[in-house]
Amino acid sequence: MKPDLFQSPDYYDLDALLSDEHKLVREAARGWVKREVSPIIEDYAQKAEFPIQIIHGLAEIGAFGPYIPEEYGGAGLDYISYGLIMQEIERGDSGVRSTASVQSSLVMYPIWKYGNEEQRMKYLPKLASGEFMGCFGLTEPNYGSDPGSMITNFKDKGDHYLLNGAKMWISNAPFADIAIVWAKNEEGRIHGLIIERGMQGFSTPETHHKWSLRASATGELIFDNVKVPKGNLLPNKSGLGAPLGCLDSARYGIAWGAIGAAMDCYDTALRYAKERIQFDKPIAGTQLQQKKLAEMITEITKAQLLTWRLGVLKNEGKATTAQISMAKRNNVDMAIHIAREARQILGAMGISGDYSIMRHMMNLESVITYEGTHDIHLLITGMDITGISAFK
Ligand code: TGC
Ligand code: FAD
């Protein structure tokens, strides 16, 4: 891959809205991505392998539980810092950001919010340092957009629970030490359980042949009469609202992350267009390529403003599920569109692994599907403004 020459676009001087701490956190993440991710990520994506050695660095830049209080090993940062870290990591690769999102918002968040003090002290510091890695099992082979219909279930056997069922498309599953698994009890109520690698009857086969998120490990979670200690149930929230609450936090991070992928595609295409000569002049001097580049920076700027405002609302505890959905949907769509346009600006070079664009473009096909599809987020907005659910 070519050297990482990334220069972050900031057309409306949004830096003026950030605190010194925000900028420090962002610079630490940006520098780390340039040093540790950019030089290796294309090779790992080509061989469809997660670069497991970066876990320590992710922990060091505070990517695991940025907003989790320091008493539990988190970085104790605000939600704008969390967003900026996700943006910088996804500038490198959406799959690496996935690993950080899952660890922070889908594993540490439910233990912090729905767990008891013993569970928090046992797991959170090790998850923050990367000593433990986690995954989140909601999606099932027959239930993706409709997780409330899940069939994975557990029965009360007196001194333990007995868990049966299967989850699929689970990020981090192949190497995770623990899994937060959503399953129904005998009354059909959804609960979260902490499942540990090594429990008898629990396996995590890897999913192969992906054309997207190739540098992220994806797998299944299979539960065949797994005996789960009663102390592994998250006691403080149940019902579908519990996993959906975690998704709010992860979707918020994705809204920021997608801007990172878009910025990288725009920056690469702008530089290439200024250097590439056809018909005796840089292609950046043609109206058609300027239209693409001008529209890209306009959309990136709009997404940056939307997300910054969402971060302020989140810090104030006011961001709603529907507002988060709008930002996730808008920004991922914006990023995938920019990746496709940027790829065309590079002509044949756009399909080469020497540049990051095609990898971003393929990664974003997963990002537009997971954590609620593009359609589902539109329906969440539709329900919010009309008061009528169009899901069922
Ligand atoms: P519905 O009847 O609307 O709601 C059921 C209950 O949940 C409450 N609720 C929420 N609570 C907290 N936060 C939210 N965001 C909530 N949204 C809804 C709701 O108030 C209700 O509570 P109660 O007390 O009345 O029971 O549920 P529904 O069955 O109609 O479904 C709604 C729908 C479609 C919006 C929802 O199920 C949905 O979001 N589907 C998409 C599924 C999804 O996003 N899956 C993601 C899996 S994880 C993943 O993809 C990780 S990728 C990670 C990576 O690699 O980065
Ligand atoms: P479906 O729900 O079958 O949807 C298929 C199509 O139908 C979509 O276009 C959808 O928008 C549309 N559709 C569905 N319902 C409606 C409706 N009511 N009205 C109109 N259109 C509708 N899940 C986890 O639990 N944990 C993870 O860590 C995780 N990681 C993932 C990693 C990757 C790489 C990928 C690709 C997925 C991951 N997922 C994970 C799963 C992801 O959340 C689901 O794929 C997603 O929620 C969509 O579910 P589905 O694929 O079953 O699609």
From TrEMBL:
Listed transmembrane segments: none
Domain Acyl-CoA oxidase/dehydrogenase middle residue range list: 135-226
Domain named Acyl-CoA dehydrogenase/oxidase N-terminal: residues: 19-131
Any Gene Ontology biological process: fatty-acyl-CoA biosynthetic process
Domain Acyl-CoA dehydrogenase/oxidase C-terminal: 238-383
Similarity annotation: Belongs to the acyl-CoA dehydrogenase family.
Protein name: Acyl-CoA dehydrogenase
